[in-house]
């Protein structure tokens, strides 16, 4: 389906408002066209033929009618603007809501290759440009073409020669609309892309400002941003030059040519004594020809808005066309927490496997430790277990059910995760534990926080669990963020728990506290722990050692130490033996 048709389908959702706007617009155009007729009537019937004495009463009455028409036109224009603004805003509200809902259904791999700033740009900047299409460009074009059509009809009624002259201008306008679109399309695409790139870079730079400043990379980052900004400005200036060359300049030349031809027609008529035009008729023809070019100026001036909106619409609908994750039919209520990986292989890219023939069996309530060097496949196992991705080969079973056959929502409802760098949202400690879920009461959240040692979090905070949290929890220590993340997982009471390198970023004192919290969390739950510090998984029921996507060792801590393999070397290195 073309972009134009899709925009039409979006607009149809507010058809009552748009129809009301078009009706008001139609009457506003008709009202505006009545003015010159009154002027012609005054000239021909009350001034030209009045002789030495002019009766002012009918003239004043007609002028009063003219003023009344102007007031009615102003009122209609006001309501027309309000109606179109409301309709356009509603369309964009629905579009943004649908787009945001859609991106939440997209697979994680889609976002692997698309920076967050580019996603934000499409939801905010591009939809804002589309808003201008409905609130500015659409009424301008409809009113403009309605005015042009009405004026040409009236001019034809009074003088066919001048009407033909006016009619010739319309194909020129359409020709220029098509030519402008072809020329500006490339520049508008580049402008929107560079705008997205700058948003992405800003987002990335703000999130990584600590690293940028720590490594004195400010100048380099500034240079990269300046290069993007220069390319954006270069192409935007090309659009401005194109607009400047073709808006008033082009229309001004055409208007001058039309008036010269009209003067020639009138002059020839008078010189040949074939003049049939009255003074009033000359006034109305000149007035209407002048009015004919006003909407043309407006239409040409909105060409850049039209093209930017078209490009933005393509970008928005391109994202909407991304295939969402398949919504499976089955539901899974995890009751035991048994997990099996059966001959699982997986790759983020085709023909590049990061996991090869993985077999795991975690009995209900067991703790499974995952160790290995960076890139060995530990996090990939967690991604598969949570179904951020599906395996390329093999099966993952939870309580004997293939995870591919059930909805992710039902599966994840009894699963919890604690990340190495816990993400906290703007709000309070309470809202970060409950995540706004009404099923988690304040009492449950407080109890969960206390069970994981939360008194150490709250003792330095005056407002306790109601303490405000800024984005990413930047004002809290890493240990406090970690404990809040633990409390969040505990409050949702999962049957399967994933601890992603939970103690890699904390000091030894806090590690002991976290270890106690982990013991609370693991009780009665199947737990997978990605460990940097092997001391945190000494008591695990199973320890899996991964290397280059394969399980090379498997057993308990004592068994692996006795094996004197890779795990024993890693443990000896960490313990200083």
TrEMBL record:
> Where would you say this protein principally sits, based on its record?
membrane
**Pfam families per UniProt:** ABC_membrane (PF00664), ABC_tran (PF00005)
An annotated Gene Ontology molecular function: ATP hydrolysis activity
**How does the protein associate with the membrane?**
Multi-pass membrane protein
Q: Which residues form the ABC transporter domain?
A: 339-573
Which residue ranges traverse the bilayer? 21-43, 63-84, 138-158, 164-180, 248-267
Subcellular location(s) per record: Cell membrane
Q: In its keyword annotation, does this UniProt entry include Protein transport? A: no
The segment(s) forming the ABC transmembrane type-1 domain are: 19-308
A Gene Ontology cellular component where this protein is annotated is: plasma membrane
| UniProt keyword list | ATP-binding, Membrane, Nucleotide-binding, Transmembrane, Transmembrane helix, Transport
Question: What functional role does this protein have?
Answer: May be involved in multidrug export. Transmembrane domains (TMD) form a pore in the cell membrane and the ATP-binding domain (NBD) is responsible for energy generation.
Q: Write down what this protein is called.
A: ABC transporter ATP-binding protein
């Amino acid at each position: 389906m073309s972009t134009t048709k899709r925009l039409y389908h979006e607009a149809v959702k507010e058809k009552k408002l748009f129809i009301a706007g078009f009706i008001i617009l139609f009457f506003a155009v008709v009202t505006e066209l009545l003015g010159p007729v009154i002027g012609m009537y005054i000239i021909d019937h009350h001034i030209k033929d009045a002789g030495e004495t002019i009766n002012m009463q009918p003239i004043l009455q007609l002028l009063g009618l003219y003023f009344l028409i102007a007031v009615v036109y102003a009122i209609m224009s006001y309501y027309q603007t309000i109606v179109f603004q409301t309709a356009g805003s509603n369309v964009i509200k629905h579009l943004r809501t649908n787009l945001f809902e859609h991106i939440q259904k997209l697979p994680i791999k889609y976002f692997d290759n698309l920076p967050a700033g580019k996603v934000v740009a499409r939801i905010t900047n591009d939809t804002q440009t589309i808003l201008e299409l409905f609130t500015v460009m659409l009424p301008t074009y409809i009113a403009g073409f309605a005015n042009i059509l009405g004026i040409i009809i009236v001019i034809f009624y009074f003088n066919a020669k001048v009407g033909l002259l006016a009619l010739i201008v319309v194909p020129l306008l359409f020709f220029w609309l098509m030519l402008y679109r072809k020329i500006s399309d490339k520049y508008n695409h580049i402008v929107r892309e560079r705008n997205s790139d700058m948003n992405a870079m800003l987002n990335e730079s703000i999130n990584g400002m600590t690293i940028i400043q720590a490594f004195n990379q400010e100048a380099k980052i500034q240079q990269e941003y300046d290069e993007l900004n220069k390319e954006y400005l270069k192409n935007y200036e090309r659009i401005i030059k194109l607009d400047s060359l073709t808006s008033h300049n082009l229309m001004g030349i055409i208007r001058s040519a039309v008036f010269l031809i009209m003067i020639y027609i009138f002059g020839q008529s008078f010189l040949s004594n074939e003049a049939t035009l009255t003074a009033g008729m000359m006034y109305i023809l000149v007035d209407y020809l002048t009015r004919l070019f006003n909407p043309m100026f407006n239409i040409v001036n909105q060409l850049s808005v039209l093209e930017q909106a078209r490009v933005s619409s393509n970008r928005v609908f391109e994202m909407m066309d991304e295939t969402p994750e398949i919504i499976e039919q089955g539901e899974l209520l995890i009751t035991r927490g048994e997990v099996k990986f059966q001959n699982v292989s997986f790759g983020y890219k085709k023909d590049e496997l990061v996991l090869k023939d993985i077999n795991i069996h975690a009995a209900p309530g067991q703790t499974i430790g995952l160790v290995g060097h960076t890139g060995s496949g530990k996090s990939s196992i967690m991604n598969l277990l949570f179904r951020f991705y599906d395996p390329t080969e093999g099966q993952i079973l939870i309580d004997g059910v293939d995870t591919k056959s059930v909805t992710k929502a039902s599966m994840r409802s009894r699963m919890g995760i604690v990340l190495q760098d816990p993400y906290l949202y703007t709000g309070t400690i309470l809202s970060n534990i409950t995540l706004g879920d009404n099923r988690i009461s304040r009492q449950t959240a407080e109890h969960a926080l206390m069970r994981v040692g939360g008194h150490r979090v709250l003792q330095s905070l005056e407002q306790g669990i109601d303490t405000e949290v800024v984005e990413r929890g930047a004002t809290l220590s890493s240990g406090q963020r970690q404990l809040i993340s633990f409390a969040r997982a505990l409050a949702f009471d999962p049957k399967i728990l994933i601890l992603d390198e939970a103690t890699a970023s904390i000091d030894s004192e806090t590690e002991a506290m976290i270890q106690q919290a982990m013991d609370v969390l693991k009780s009665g739950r199947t737990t997978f722990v990605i460990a940097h510090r092997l001391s945190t998984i000494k008591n695990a029921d199973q320890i899996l050692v991964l290397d280059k996507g394969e399980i090379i060792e498997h057993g308990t801590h004592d068994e692996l130490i006795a094996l004197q393999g890779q795990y024993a070397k890693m443990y000896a290195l960490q313990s200083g033996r």
